[in-house]
């Protein structure tokens, strides 16, 4: 039996077939109704894993501190984090974090691999006692294909074992964990050379390309005659495999988005290669870009002078009324990454910033010097309470506001509840406004 | 064998019926299908391009490779024209959804689209006549199925027949 799956759905299917529980997603592109902080999500996944059940969490960011804690303590049953690429974050940034935190990171290059790699990731996680990050590029998140689906295997739970030396971070334990991690890293590094995740294809040996993820597929599409070594991991890196590939080709080109992480490491090991001398530093490498840079071929461009189209809200979107009212106020508006960002585009042009998780805290800082407004999804209210308590600006929480109104009332925090159409009638410069976009408009 | 099909549209136009129709026929024919549509928060207004690969492979669409370009909006058909192969078929729905800059009078909606497309294999369709089945039929034509055969298949109006024709054309 087959069914159409996107890369993201395929990864979740892999979790199901691998007998894992998906604890949730912090990525607003896939689940904007129930935002949850990355820390909570990863803690939940880790807790489930230590209790003996395989766990998977979809994260929208991964920072070095959090990743380092994870790799120090280890896991119980397999623990996999799926990271879906965001336009702002190039591939190399995730690879940098993986290197700094010694976090095993694997990168599928096709939708089919999204499923199989997640299953492999659980096995690797259990084998090396470490969480594994599965990196899905933006291209994979948007691609879909029909996949053969299989029933999950029945796996027994791993028995829970109390282990304070490992899981209670006393100074003496941390030292032991650090030693364990060094030993484990060495093992991972040695084994990674023969991981079945890498794929070397030798064709014309004048030029060989080393890359990873779906860039490898793009390279094969635009230059099918070139030899390609596709790395299945960002960390650890199979240096011996790359060296053997480099010895087989006359010229080695490293293609990686963002900073030249792999290129620098190869050069440090005396493996001669090209990289950022051919490809720009800060750019997404589309197939057309790769073709132009790799083969020096001009690719037909879009006809110039055609009217452009900006993304916008659907005419019946409840936030439209909110932002029309805010435009009249003329104050800077701060919001989160999500659908509200669309108000930054013409004709609304109302949003000033949209890059922090907690726009209320951001606006609290901004409002010390300049009056402003924050617009946040009310589903986040649990994480915003401390900042709402000291709110010094107009904080608008939208969505289903039932829970927010109960929590604010319980804390005796004053608020106004209104509908999107009536936001324009509000006569206040600061305070909390709950805009119920779920009710009748 | 595989065939690349591109669907140019404006976010907010529903492409699911076209994808669903092609998927159903691919399922019946045993052919594989791969789709890429760039993820976006926008549900409205933005230009969209969906790449559908019928047959083997999961490589991205390159300029000049699409055998069929289905444009659900006239301006978007023109914008995505670079993806159409020289001998490819353009199925153009003569529907106009005005971009904001046109609606506000800043620029005009291009009126010379048909002149520019004069030398290309083109099927112009009025919005009312536009349907997923028509797209499938024209895709079969692009795959080299004879017009009389396509007409015969459609006359039966049997999705099984279209599915089999897809499979045959893709060598499944």
Structure description:
The complex is a heterodimer of chains A (441) and B (172). Chain A is α/β, with parallel strands linked by helices and 441 residues long. Chain A folds into three domains: 2-192, Thiamin diphosphate (ThDP)-binding fold, Pyr/PP domains (Rossmann fold), CATH 3.40.50; 199-295, Rossmann fold, CATH 3.40.50; 318-436, Thiamin diphosphate (ThDP)-binding fold, Pyr/PP domains (Rossmann fold). Chain A is built from 16 helices and 18 strands. Chain A has a six-stranded mixed sheet with strand order 2-3-4-6-5-11, sandwiched between helices. In chain A, strands 14-13-15-16-18-17 form a six-stranded parallel sheet, sandwiched between helices. A four-stranded mixed sheet of chain A has the order 8-10-9-12, with helices on both faces. In chain A, α9 (214-222) links the parallel β9 (204-212) and β10. In chain A, α1 packs across α5, α3 packs across α4 and α9 crosses α12 (287-295). The mean pLDDT of chain A is 88. In chain B, β4, α2 and β5 (84-93) form a beta-alpha-beta unit. A six-stranded mixed sheet of chain B has the order 2-3-1-4-5-6. Chain B has one domain: 3-Layer(aba) Sandwich (Pyruvate-ferredoxin Oxidoreductase, domain 3), CATH 3.40.920. Chain B is globular.
Key phrases:
heterodimer; A: 441 residues; alpha/beta; Rossmann fold; 6-stranded parallel sheet; 16 helices; 18 strands; B: 172 residues; Pyruvate-ferredoxin Oxidoreductase, domain 3; 7 helices; globular
Question: Could you write a compact summary of the structure shown?
Answer:
The complex is a heterodimer of chains A (441) and B (172). Chain A is an alpha/beta fold and 441 residues long. Chain A contains 16 helices and 18 strands.
- For the secondary structure, the number of strands of chain B is 6
Sheet of most strands of chain A:
6 strands, mixed
Q: Name the shape of chain B in a single word.
A: globular
Whole-number count of domains of chain A: 3
User: What is the 3D form of chain A?
Assistant: globular
Class of the largest domain in chain A in CATH? Alpha Beta
How many individual domains of chain B? 1
The largest beta-sheet of chain A arranges its strands as 2-3-4-6-5-11
Q: Under the CATH scheme, which architecture of chain B would be assigned?
A: 3-Layer(aba) Sandwich
How are the strands of the largest sheet of chain B arranged? 2-3-1-4-5-6
**Poorly predicted runs of chain B:** none
CATH topology of chain B: Pyruvate-ferredoxin Oxidoreductase, domain 3
């Amino acid at each position: 039996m087959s069914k159409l799956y996107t890369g993201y759905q395929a990864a979740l299917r892999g979790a199901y077939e691998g007998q894992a529980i998906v604890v949730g997603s912090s990525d607003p592109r896939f689940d904007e109704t129930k935002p949850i902080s990355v820390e909570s999500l990863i803690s939940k996944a880790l807790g489930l894993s230590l209790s003996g059940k395989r766990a998977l969490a979809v994260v929208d960011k991964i920072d070095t501190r959090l990743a380092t804690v994870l790799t120090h303590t280890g896991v119980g049953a397999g623990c996999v984090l799926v990271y879906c690429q965001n336009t702002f974050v190039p591939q190399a940034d995730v690879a940098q974090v993986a290197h700094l935190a010694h976090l095993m990171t694997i990168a599928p290059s096709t939708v089919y691999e999204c499923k199989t790699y997640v299953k492999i990731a659980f096995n690797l996680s259990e084998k090396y006692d470490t969480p594994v990050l599965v990196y899905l590029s933006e291209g994979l998140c948007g691609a879909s294909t029909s996949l053969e689906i299989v029933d999950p295997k029945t796996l027994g739970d791993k028995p829970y074992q109390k282990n304070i030396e490992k899981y209670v971070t006393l100074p003496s334990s941390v030292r032991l964990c650090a030693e364990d991690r060094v030993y484990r890293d060495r093992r991972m590094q040695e084994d990674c050379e023969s991981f079945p995740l890498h794929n070397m294809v030798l064709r014309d040996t004048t030029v060989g390309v080393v890359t990873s993820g779906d860039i490898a597929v793009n390279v094969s599409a635009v230059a099918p005659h070139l030899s390609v070594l596709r790395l299945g991991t960002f960390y650890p890196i199979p240096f011996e495999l790359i060296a053997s590939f480099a010895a087989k080709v006359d010229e080695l080109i490293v293609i990686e988005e963002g900073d030249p992480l792999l290129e620098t490491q190869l050069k440090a090991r005396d493996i001669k290669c090209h990289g950022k001398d051919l490809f720009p530093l800060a750019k997404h490498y589309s197939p057309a870009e790769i073709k132009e840079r790799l083969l020096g071929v001009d690719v037909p461009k879009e006809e110039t002078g055609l009217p452009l189209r900006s993304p916008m809200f659907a005419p019946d979107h409840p936030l439209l009324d909110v932002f029309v009212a805010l435009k009249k106020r003329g104050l800077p508006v701060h919001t989160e990454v999500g659908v509200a960002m669309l108000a930054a585009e013409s004709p609304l042009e109302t949003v000033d910033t949209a890059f922090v998780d907690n726009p209320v805290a951001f606006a609290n800082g901004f409002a010390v010097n300049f009056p402003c407004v924050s617009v946040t999804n009310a589903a986040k209210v649990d994480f915003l309470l401390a900042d709402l308590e000291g709110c010094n600006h107009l904080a608008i929480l939208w969505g289903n506001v039932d829970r927010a109104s109960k929590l604010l009332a319980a804390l005796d925090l004053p608020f106004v509840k209104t509908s999107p159409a009536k936001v324009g009638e509000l006569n206040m410069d600061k305070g909390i406004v709950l805009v119920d976009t779920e009710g009748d408009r | 064998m595989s065939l690349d099909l591109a669907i140019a549209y404006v976010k907010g136009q529903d492409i699911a019926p076209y994808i669903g129709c092609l998927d159903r026929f691919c399922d019946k024919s045993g052919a594989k299908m791969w789709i890429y549509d760039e993820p976006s928060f926008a549900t409205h207004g933005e230009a969209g391009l969906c790449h559908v690969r019928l047959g083997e492979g999961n490589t991205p669409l390159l300029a000049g490779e699409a055998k069929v370009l289905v444009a659900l909006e006239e301006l978007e058909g023109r914008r995505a024209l670079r993806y159409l192969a020289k001998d490819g078929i353009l199925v153009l729905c003569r529907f106009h959804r005005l971009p904001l800059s046109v609606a506000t009078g800043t620029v005009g909606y291009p009126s010379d689209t048909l002149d520019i497309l004069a030398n290309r294999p083109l099927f112009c369709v009025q919005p009312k006549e536009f349907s997923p089945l028509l797209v499938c039929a024209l895709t079969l034509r692009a795959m080299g199925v004879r017009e009389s055969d396509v007409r015969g298949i459609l006359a039966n109006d049997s999705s099984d027949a279209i599915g089999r024709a897809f499979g045959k054309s893709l060598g499944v």
